[in-house]
Structures are given as structure tokens and as C-alpha cells.
Amino acid sequence: DIQMTQSPSSLSASVGDRVTITCRASQGISNYLAWYQQKPGKVPKLLIYAASTLQSGVPSRFSGSGSGTDFTLTISSLQPEDVATYYCQKYNSAPFTFGPGTKVDIK
Amino acid sequence: EVQLVESGGGLVQPGRSLRLSCAASGFTFDDYAMHWVRQAPGKGLEWVSGISWNSGSIGYADSVKGRFTISRDNAKNSLYLQMNSLRAEDTALYYCAKGGLGFGDPFDYWGQGTLVTVSS
């Protein structure tokens, strides 16, 4: 099975900073990669799918890129409401594995 | 408005069974794949199982294969997860999630979850 890894596991940044999270698949998954945001105590929310397509209603400060095995999620200007754990997920075929998550805090 | 409401969770002893349900509304249920995702306390997301619109494609995580069975009743707009031989490590919040028209699509709506606690 394909394994998903993320780095860093956590980060702390200032409001307005550019934040980048990396996700790596152990084998190529083309662009079948989604990013989810889970705020503390809340349900996960789909942010990006097909590696770079923003889900409807998601602020444009979020963007995604990559293909094959290496992917990134970028928040162009971190806002207080972006405090959350971010997960990548492969969905080309079962098992639809999630990455371990990256916790983002405000410094 | 899409709504997914899970039920059936609770406290159960190791080795026993439990059946989770997910009632769906606000979309054409029988057009979409559906999934179960769980989250152990303080841990990350783990995909558990998924089923295509017509039950023609079904998948399980290795951790539950042979013990859990996913099913759906399109006439009742409902998704189920039969969990047998439960273990302490199955303790988690279980989410029902809506997939896409294809089995390999992301999960765009999630329920609030139902808590399963496996303990003697």
C-alpha cells in the first residue's frame, strides 16, 4: 500500500506569514491528492482536491501544487482562523490513506 | 443542504459487535460513494472503509479487514458499518463522509461523528 508522509509535523508562524506544508506519497499518485483542514474540536473540511483545485468557498490564500509523489499546501498569508491540523489524502484507489497531519499554530 | 448523521456508537466490550449507521439527506444518495473515517482520541484521521454508489466497489483498511463490513441501503439513504471482534484500538470517533460520483473521489461532506469506545 502507498504510504503518505507530511512535514513538518507542526509549525508556529506569525499572522501574515507564508506557510508551506509538504506531503509525500511513497509511490506516484498522479494528482489524486486532497488537503483537509480540521480546526480544534471540529469536523474535517475539504480544502483542495486534484492537488491544486480549490474547493468552493475556500479562501484564495490557500493553494496546492504537485504531482506524482511530492505535493505542497501553501497559505499565502496566515490568518488566526487558519489554526488547525492539515491532512493530505490520496484518493486514486483504496486504501484512501491520510497523511499524519501538520498542526499549524500562531506564534 | 447536505446532512450526514451518524448513530450507533457507544461503549462495548472487547470482542463484541456494534453496528453504525449514517443517515444522509440533501443530495441524491444513490449517485455517490460513501466512506467511514475514524479518529482515535488525540490522533489523526484514518480511512476505514468505502463503498461505491452501487456497492460494486468496496474497500477496507488493513486494520479492519475481515472484522468490519460496510453496506448501504439506497432506498433508505443510509450507510452502515458492521463492526465485529472489536478491539481497544478501535476506540475512536467514527465519521461518515460523502465521496464523489466515482469511487476514487475526495470527501466533500462529513458528519459530526459517533463515538465508539471499546473497553471492559
Care to give the gist of this entry?
The complex is a heterodimer of chains A (about 110) and B (about 120). With about 110 residues, chain A is mainly beta.
Structural overview:
Chain A: Keywords: Adaptive immunity, Cell membrane, Immunity, Immunoglobulin, Immunoglobulin domain, Membrane, Secreted. Chain A: This is IG c499_light_IGKV1-27_IGKJ3. Chain A: It comes from Homo sapiens. The complex is a heterodimer of chains A (107) and B (120). Chain A is mostly beta strands and 107 residues long. Helix content of chain A is 0%, strand content 49%. Chain A has strands at residues 4-7, 10-13, 19-25, 33-38, 45-49, 53-54, 62-67, 70-75, 84-90, 102-106. Chain A has a six-stranded mixed beta sheet with strand order 2-10-9-4-5-6, with no helix packed on it. In chain A, strands 1-3-8-7 form a four-stranded antiparallel beta sheet, with no helix packed on it. The model of chain A has no long low-confidence stretch (mean pLDDT 98). Chain B is an all-beta fold. In chain B, the strands form two sheets. In chain B, strands 2, 4, 5, 6, 9, 10 and 11 form a seven-stranded mixed beta sheet that branches. Classes of the chains: A mainly beta (107), B mainly beta (120). The A-B interface holds A 1, 32, 34, 36, 38, 43-46, 49, 55, 85, 87, 89, 91-101 and B 35, 37, 44-47, 50, 57, 59-62, 95, 103-108, 110-113.
